[in-house]
Amino acid sequence: MKESIQQVIRTIDELDIDAICSVVQHCLDEGISPEEIIESGISTGLSIVGDKFESGQYFLADLVMAGEVVREAMPVLQEKMNPDMTAARERVILATVQGDIHEIGKNIVGLILSANGFEVIDLGVDVSASKIIDTARTTGARLIGLSALLSTMVGSIRDVVEASAKAGIRNQLKIVIGGACTSDDLRLEMGADAYGETAIDALRIFKGFIAAT
Amino acid sequence: MKGYTVTVKPSGKSQVFPEGTLICDALLDMGIPLKTPCGGKGTCGHCRVSVTGNQPPRTPSEERILRGTPGVRLSCQVPLTGDVEIRVEERLRKKQRRVPHHGNDRPYGLAVDIGTTNVRISMVETGSGSSYHLDSFLNPQRRFGHDVISRISAASSGDVLKTMQALIRTSIFSSIADSLDALGISPERITCIAFSGNTTMLYLLLGKDVSPLGTYPYPVSAREFSSLTVRDLGETLLPETPLLILPVLSAFLGGDLIGGLALCHKNGIRKNAFFIDLGTNGELFLLDQSGLVHATSCAMGPALEGMNLSWGMTAEDGAIVHVTQGAGGLFFEIMGEIPPSGISGTGVIDLISILLEKGYIEESGVFASPADVNLPSPLSFGETDGIREIRIGNGIALTQVDVRTVQLAKGASLAASELLLKEARCSADDIEHVFIAGSFGENLNVEHFRRLGFIPEFKNASWEFLGNTSLLAAQKVCCDPRFLETATRLRDRTRELVLANHPEFQDTFIRALSFSRAPS
Ligand code: B12
Ligand code: FES
């Protein structure tokens, strides 16, 4: 792998917000495409950060910082991105389910998705199923990420699934769940499309859905 | 679902349980409670029994702990896969309590603190107020989840509410019956039973619907519980005995906090005081300059109670309960003076504080690099499954993830404290008294506790560790009939700060996770 890409990976891993822009610019100057910088550099850097979070080496503030480092680099990359890809930015609706107000995990997911070129529509916390489905209809977003941390509130996930069915748009949507009290079993039980354990998983899953269509 | 028979030897007592039931749970349901100080992680070895019959192979942790002893299993690790016969060594049945002098016919009250994680029972001579520890055990409802919210969600399905009520009632009353029997005290001498606990635990004891407690805006259906007797719990031992239950304020501020408040009030503490009860659900109150009471709660998880840490356990034999520094390295105080099998909340606080002070753990919470520091004897750095750890010896370690778990707990309580001060328009410097409560089972080293920053510095305050105020309040209720009235009156004067949708929580919490001493 090119040294300049490795430099991007290292800069994200070290959460060096002051260096990121010049490091990314350096890649662009070498003629590396923004897409490749995101794919091989930024995403790889983020998954290293994610692994370090899993093992306790990094903590919440570091995750937030990683999101910010990436966000810092976005304008530099966007300038060089070919307009087709920017136009094709996928919309993702993110929300913490009704009855639950934990937002930190959802915000990190949002940061990482937007850092990777998604257009995130963040509806906040304690969001009703009808608001989510209305937003999907008015914005045409096909991807929905639901965050749930309270085991008492998991029923709200089913509410979203059912509301989309009622609105007749269930098969146009991909509903992804995550957050401390969720699991793949819960996804099956609630009838959602995918479960992600970390923000990095969220990125992988949403990218997978785009690739599949 | 299939059922299998568990037969206990030598008594021959037997009962059928569904496939997959853990042997320790089956024994508990048959009235043979074993101590389970590590909470069933399979690390402490206290729950061992001899098993014959159809059983799954030993788990790696059993191999490690039991080594050469064939036929012996850790009952917390073995789900039923067939009919079994079990032999419990008498020595491993629960310990006999310290016996008070009872060569008189004075009346006694019983005080019970129902914690989400631990249950404690004591006996009080109602005249003199002298109290005696009777028993403590892990809350048997733990099989339905470790925190209040998971129990609430479990309670909403089928008969689980009934099962949980039966579990807590049976465990408490069989413990009482055993204790009275062992002490030779006739049940007639028990004049009352006082209960303290958080709102969910009290509701579950009374068999009340807990589902509203878990759903925004968390309404409570009852805040006082008067004129009840043991019979109302569906219990036949001591049916006429009155129940005295501490009042609750809201879904998350329970009788335990109100009890602590009333105790402070009785001791003449009326203003400029800060109190925190460090439990699975942390509860705190603040008496401002004019004596107004402000209170809030935060979800801390059971780390300090020895639960969700890799080698955590309650303060039972084999637990490292204190760590001190000496010339030759670290010194570990172990309960029962046997080889250590885990570490209790007080031990974890000591250890992390010492490691921080020496720079072995950085203020961010991350372990120092082995290249940069030399750990004091007997500690050493290691790594298991990609997770770094500081090894203590005897297979026990403090992992990097464990430190993060403690940080999540301390971040929640520090953030809650700071927001409560702000809400009350109080400066931390105005606080004169700081009271720390919790059921750690052992004395807390206040200096070490301060170093970890669970609460603000409060540099002008005197700091005091009060122990388990929830149990102390229940004891007080037994002796002083007016205590409940005081508690209720104070409850009605308390303003609750709800953090659930507080706009500043997130930032405060993330900042509060660090161990840095920087002024907040
Ligand atoms: C901070 C916190 C709070 C804060 C929330 C602040 C805020 N603005 O968000 C406050 C104090 C307000 C709070 C309140 C409560 N809390 Co709280 N809280 C926590 C705590 C300590 C950390 C949560 C967190 O932010 N984690 C960090 C983030 C990064 O992790 P995460 O959310 O899991 O997200 C990651 C992944 O899951 C994933 N992910 C997240 N969302 C999504 C979505 C998708 C689509 C995908 C793919 C992935 C994904 O990516 C993220 C990054 O990798 C946890 C304990 C814990 N260990 O989780 C308790 C905890 C969640 N809280 C709990 C409880 C009980 C409560 C209260 C009911 C209690 C109370 N006394 O106040 C209230 C409820 C309020 C409500 N209605 O929601 C319990 C829940 C228990 C249960 N079984 O349901 C916990 C587990 C603590 C405990 N053990 O008791 N809490
Ligand atoms: S309770 Fe079984 S090993 Fe600790």
Can you describe this structure?
Chain A has 213 residues and is of the alpha/beta class. Chain A has 10 helices and 5 strands. Chain A folds into 2 domains: 3-78, Methionine synthase domain (Methyltransferase, Methionine Synthase (B12-binding Domains), Chain A, domain 1); 85-211, Rossmann fold, CATH 3.40.50. Chain B has 520 residues and is α/β, with parallel strands linked by helices. In chain B, helix 6 (255-266) crosses helix 10 (469-479). Chain B folds into 4 domains: 3-93, Ubiquitin-like (UB roll), CATH 3.10.20.30; 108-245, Domain of unknown function (DUF4445) (Nucleotidyltransferase, domain 5); 268-301 and 417-512, Nucleotidyltransferase, domain 5 (2-Layer Sandwich), CATH 3.30.420; 303-404, no CATH class. A 6-stranded mixed sheet of chain B has the order 8-7-6-9-11-10, with helices on both faces. Chain B is built from 12 helices and 23 strands. The chains are: A alpha/beta (213), B alpha/beta (520). The interface between A and B is medium-sized, with 21 and 31 residues.
